[in-house]
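Subject: for your reference before the review

Hello V.,

The reviewers asked for a structural picture of the protein, and I figured it would be easier to keep everything in one thread rather than splitting it across files. Below is the amino acid sequence we used in the manuscript, unchanged from the supplementary table.
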Amino acid sequence: MPVTVDNSGDIETFCQNSPVSVGDPIRLVFRAYEEATAPFNVRIRSPGGKVIFERVLRELPTGQPQSAPAVEFSASAAGEYRLEIKQLYGKQRGEAVLHVRLS
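And here is what came back from the structure prediction:
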């Protein structure tokens, strides 16, 4: 099941593991185009529109050595998972759509 990510905004989202199957964990890391100061709020919505993950991050997980661990959740169904990430005390934000399809 391939995973594709459509991004918009100042903070870009990347999926560390692809392909994934329904029920497998999906690990997400982020990249800000400009220096972004923490904290960040991350919210993930399922294909049905329900919030399945919401957390405040003290550090942006980038996938680099010594960075915070990746944001991880399980894909319970095929479809579009909508992700929002934004600075709590700044203007940088990003939106992404993860397309999880059956193979």
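For the response letter, the relevant points are probably these. Residues 40 and 57 are 5 Å apart (CA to CA). The chain has a mean pLDDT of 91.

Happy to draft the paragraph if you're swamped.

O.
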